[in-house]
Amino acid sequence: LVHVDEEPYNLATFLAMEDASANDLFEQARAELLAAFGDQARALGGQIEAFDYADALRTVQTLLDTAANR
Prior knowledge:
The protein is mostly helical. The mean pLDDT is 89. It is built from 4 helices and no strands. The longest helix is centred in the middle third of the chain and has 17 residues, at 21-37. It has helices at residues 7-16, 21-37, 39-49, 53-68.
C-alpha cells in the first residue's frame, strides 16, 4: 500500500539525484497523489514525464509544504 505522506519525500530523493526511478514511483502513486494534491500532482506528473526533474523537485517541495500545513 502506498502512503501519500511518504511519496513526496521518496520522489524528492529520486528527483534530487536525477534518477529516472522517479518516473516509476510517480506512476505507482499517481492516483493517491492526484487525490491528495489535484492540479499540483498533475503538474508534477507532466514535469516528471518530461524528465524536468529540477522543476519537479520544486513542485514536490510545494506539495510537502502543502501537506505540512494541513
